[in-house]
Amino acid sequence: MAEEPHLLFERQGHVAVVTLNRPAVKNALSMQMIARMAEAWQEIERDPEIRVAVVTGAGGNFCAGMDLKAFAGGFEEDEWQARFAADPDLHWKGLLRHAKPAKPLIAAVEGYAVAGGTEILQAHDLRVAGESAVFGITEVRRGLFPLGGSTVRLSRQIPYTLAAEYLLTGRHIPAAEARAAGLIGHVVPDGTALDRALELAAEIAANAPLSVQAVLQSLRATREMTEADGLAYELEVGFPIIGTEDAKEGATAFKEKRDPVWQGR
């Protein structure tokens, strides 16, 4: 019997749903999963019909990070290991460390999102979690280092003192605390994180895609700029949107009291 792929990819209208799929090990990362993740991000970027992506995990967990048993025992030689040998940057592409799609990413978290799971989470724009979800950057507890970007990103997303505490203690963080810290945006009843994430995705996908992508580009790029530099960048990115066909369609649809039909032009 063939093994199920470690990542599932499906489209629901203009929404891509990416599912980490190793439920028996709480969706711990494998070479196959990371490589398939890199492929998924490329497809989301490439396909103009995809306007937003939701990332979730199978079997009631998001991602438990590195597969420590496989790491301790040594990874077997297979086709996936050969792909990593051919592309030394493949790890970082899959884990969203060096780049991410120019479209909104929404995380739908149930259960464990620890170590690499919390690292991947930080690359998402919107984050929804079930009330029993657990987070944590736990690498120091295993003699490892969080190479997914947490020592850089986390203190830019939550207060420095909390980032330092989470990174240096490696402790688990319950969903309510993660919400209070600003690591996630919504806490919902267990089992409904994906439903809520898909609702948010539908709201975003209903908007003009060029507008959404330009807003996201400016939002991401200007976080660490001075206000003056950020405002200049915003004008550079945002002003061309006013001249698009979709901008004209939005005004026309408002005038005609109908829903706009976006062309992405």
Key phrases:
9 strands; 2 domains; 44% helix; three-stranded mixed sheet; six-stranded mixed sheet; alpha/beta; 265 residues; 2-enoyl-CoA Hydratase, Chain A, domain 1
Question: In words, what does this structure look like?
Answer:
This protein has two domains: 7-205, 2-enoyl-CoA Hydratase, Chain A, domain 1, CATH 3.90.226; 209-256. It is of the alpha/beta class and 265 residues long. The radius of gyration is 19 Å and the shape is globular. It contains twelve helices and nine strands. The strands form two sheets. A six-stranded mixed sheet has the order 1-2-3-4-6-9, with helices on both faces. A three-stranded mixed sheet has the order 5-7-8. 44% of the residues lie in helices and 15% in strands.
Which of globular, elongated, flat, extended, rod-shaped describes the shape? globular
- Annotated CATH homologous superfamily of the largest domain: 2-enoyl-CoA Hydratase, Chain A, domain 1
| End-to-end C-alpha gap | 46 Å
Radius of gyration: 19 Å
* Biggest sheet architecture: 6 strands, mixed
Strand order of the biggest β-sheet:
1-2-3-4-6-9
Q: Class by helix and strand content? A: alpha/beta
Mean pLDDT: 94
Number of distinct beta strands: 9
Q: What amount of the residues lies in strands? A: 5-15%
> What is the fold-level CATH name, i.e. the topology of the largest domain?
2-enoyl-CoA Hydratase, Chain A, domain 1
Number of domains in the coordinates?
2
Low-confidence stretches: none
Element order, helices and strands?
A: EEHEHHHEEHEEHHEHEHHHH
Helicity range: 40-55%
